[in-house]
Each structure stands twice: as structure tokens, then as C-alpha cells.
Amino acid sequence: MSHFTTRDRIDRLESLDGDGTELVTLTVPAGKSLASTRERIAAEHAGAEQIRSDRTRGRVRRALDRVRRHLREYEGTPDCGLAVYAGVVEGDLISAVFDDLPEPITESTYRCDDRFHLDAVRETVAPGEVYGLVVVERGAAAVGRLVGDRVVPVRTLDSHVMGSSRAGGQSAKRFERERERQAEEFFQQVGDIADAAFLDDGEPVAGLVVGGSLGTAKQFVDDDYLDYRLAERVVGTYGVEYATEQGLHELVEAAGEELLDADARATRERLDEFFERLRNGDAVVYGDDVERAVEYGAVDTALVASTVDPDRREAVETAVAEHGGETLTIPTEFDRGARFAETFRVGALLRFPVE
Question: Which of 266, 315, 298, 223 is nearest to 5 (CA)?
Fold first, then answer.
């Protein structure tokens, strides 16, 4: 199962609501005995008899029956642990099992609630590296994070640094000194925000990327506006036109592929290959032709935009996997991904041409 499909399933479970405490969450860490877990669920099933509400009692026991059935499918705990979710939503009993996660589950959980508790599973598919992003100019600044291949804005702010035209009666030197003082104060404010976001409040960053006009970005880094611990992590400075949320995306593009984690790099490389094959007329299809190529077993890698309905994405992945291919979800937070989503939505790199 791909990380993207796992995230889709997590998102769908997170969107569900139950009535009262009718949704069951069970997580079993790697290495924990399934026998003791089965005993716990059997005890909870018996204890549910004490629930006063007939409807709630019936729904909880139905959910626990489903959990018990899933647990019987395993001789032992999977290598990365096991997570089981079950409950009645809008009258229907639904369940989901995660048994092939990319990283081990680390906590044992049993909850009956009006929602599913998904943090333990979500943590196993979180990107490994996070980068800090700062775009700074004299007139504005933007601060954000690069999480995998997703840009997450933290804050944008405008400065009160005076423009280049001075008021009547001001000497040129005094005016310039005041402008520099205001710029220094603004740069320090941006530095303090970055320090708080990347050292104090947020998760640690693997590196910091700074953008703006090259002179301004370099001045911001060189003149000690950043905490020394953050300054030591500066990956580089890059020319960026806008000190806005758009500028954060431009900064990632300017900094290049080295900022992306391995999965994100591989995805972008395959997308680049898709566009290159398209230009050269090589073995590539898109749109409705993808389904026909899948039927011929010709699809090596399917590309599906993240804006495509999750059920369709999962259907494509299942069909492609049956013929030994892989499916990659293309994020839309960068230019090429957005262009792919708008123009193609679904595409495929082929093992051989299909007429």
C-alpha cells in the first residue's frame, strides 16, 4: 500500500462522526502479544452489556465483534504493528485495518469515542524531514515549512519601512539612517518569528532556506538576525520575487530537488519523465487511455493528481498493482503538479506502447 493511499484512508476515517461513544479505536504496537489484545477486546465486549442505552450497547458490541473478527485473521502482530477501527456511522457498520504501515506503531490504544483516534497511524506516514522557509524583503516577509513536498505557511507580515522617497525637509543622510533603522527592526522581527517557529514552537527543522532579492536574503543571513542554532542550518539563499505565500512556493522551486525527501523526489522525477515522454512522443498515455493501457498490462507507473477523488485513486492503484505496476499521487502544491492536475489528472508511463 502506498503512503498516499494510507493518508487517504486516514483522512476518510477522520471525517467520520459517531453518536456518543460508539466508534472503536484499537492500536497494537509491534512486538505486543495479540493474545492479550484479544483477551482485552473479549472483556470489553462482555463489559458492554452494562451500557444503559440499548442502541449504544448494540452498536458498541457490533463494532467489537468486527474488531474480534479482524484480530482472528492474524497469527501474530505484524512487523509494524496493527491498527483496527470499527463502528456504526449513519446506520452502517464500517471498519478499517492498517497492517502494513511504513513505520512501527509505538503506542497501545483502546478507545470508544464519537470519533476515531488516528494519531498513532498518522505518525507512521509523516515525512521524515521538515525544512524552514523564509522569504524576506524590506517591505514584507513570509515564513513557512516544507513538509515532504507540501508548503505549509506559518505567517506573512508587512513592514513599515519607509519608501525610497523622503519627506520634504529631511536630509538625505538622516532619511537613509531612519530607513536602515526600520529595516533592521523589521529583519529582527522576522528573525524572531523564524526562531520561534523553528526552534521553540514547532518541530525541529532539518535546514533553513532563505529567499528574497539575493542581496537582501544574504544580508538577513549574514547580519545575525537568526538564532545561531538556526543560522547554522541555513541551506542557502535564493532569488525570489514575492515575499508572500506564493513566494514560499517559488523558494522551494528555486532551492531545487535536494530539499525533498526521497519519496517526494522520486515522485517529481517520474512526473518530469511523464512530461519529457509527452514531448518526445514516447510510451505515455493520459486521461481515459490509462484504463485501456491498464487492461493490456502496459502500465509501469500510473500518476494520479491529489485532486482526483480518493475512491478513483484507489481503484487505479489496485488495477495497476494487479499487473505489477505502481501508482504515485501527484501533489498540486508545486507548478508542475498543478499543471498536471489541471491538464491531465491521470497519466501513465508505459512498459510498451499501446495502439
Answer: 315
Give Cα 77 to chain centroid, integer Å. Answer: 27
Write the CB contacts of 279 (distance below 8 Å, at least 6 apart in sequence). Answer: none
How high is the mean pLDDT of the chain? 87
Whether the predicted pLDDT of 237 surpasses 60: yes
The mean per-residue pLDDT over the stretch 25-36 comes to: 90
In 3-state terms, what secondary structure has residue 320? helix
Residues 104 and 211 in one domain: no
- Listing DSSP states for 153-193 in one string gives EEEEEE-----SSPPTT--HHHHHHHHHHHHHHHHHHHHHH
CATH number at residue 89: 3.30.960.10
Assess whether 179 and 67 both reside in one domain: no
Cα 279 from chain centroid? Answer: 30
* Number of residues assigned to the chain: 355
Say whether both 149 and 84 belong to one domain. no
Neighbours of 33 (CB within 10 A): 11
State if pTM tops 0.70. Answer: no
Domain count, the chain: 3
Q: How large a percentage of the chain has pLDDT more than 70?
A: 92
Query: Among 125, 159, 175, where does a domain finish?
Result: 125
Q: Are residues 247 and 306 in the same domain?
A: no
Is 241 in the same domain as 270?
no
Q: Looking at the structure, do residues 72 and 61 belong to the same domain, yes or no?
A: yes
Position 1 scores a pLDDT of 47
Give every CB contact of residue 114 below 8 A, 6+ residues apart in sequence: 17, 18, 19, 20, 21, 22, 23
Q: Which grid cell sits at 34?
A: 495479540
Q: What is the pLDDT of residue 306?
A: 84
Distances (CA, A) of 192 to 101, 300, 343: 38, 48, 41
Side-chain half-sphere CA neighbours of 7 within 13 A: 12
H/E element holding 132?
strand 130-136
Backbone angles phi, psi at 5, to 5 degrees: -65, -40
Range of the domain at 325: 262-350
pLDDT bucket at 177, cuts 50 / 70 / 90: confident
